[in-house]
Design a protein that fits this description.
45% of the residues lie in helices and 19% in strands. The chain has 119 residues and is an alpha+beta fold. The two termini are 21 Å apart. The model has no long low-confidence stretch (mean pLDDT 97).
Length: 119
């Protein structure tokens, strides 16, 4: 979960103790040289995702692939799913991430509301 956009969109809204348990249980193995592998760096990345409303996988799960993802919430405000846009890093360039992130975030908020969620 720590290396994918959707996984990070979910983790960003987990309670701190649940996140700590997952890190202790599974570690933070590297899928590529860009994968976040320290708890401090992951927490910082998840804080950023929470603030902007979307998470980014910057070639962390697979070489040459980027992903932008946003969480979906249920009626209790708990994160239950995520939606994402993935593609080649050559097309999801730095200058497009904010725009794509906003689109994914807007879509996730709409889906949350459709199911009675509280985004």
């Amino acid at each position: 979960m720590h290396s994918s956009g959707s996984g990070k969109a979910l983790l960003a809204h987990y309670p701190p103790e649940r996140l700590a348990h997952l890190i202790e249980s599974h570690g933070l193995p590297a899928a590529t040289e860009k994968t976040i592998v320290t708890p401090q760096a992951l927490r910082h990345n998840l804080d950023q995702a929470r603030v902007r409303g979307f998470a980014v996988d910057d070639e962390e799960a697979a070489h040459g692939i980027r992903c932008v993802a946003a969480p979906i919430f249920d009626h209790t405000g708990e994160v239950i799913a995520a939606i994402s846009i993935s593609g080649p890093a050559s097309r999801i360039i730095d200058e497009r991430i904010a725009s794509l992130g906003e689109r994914v975030h807007t879509g996730a908020r709409s889906l949350s509301r459709l199911i009675g969620g509280n985004p």
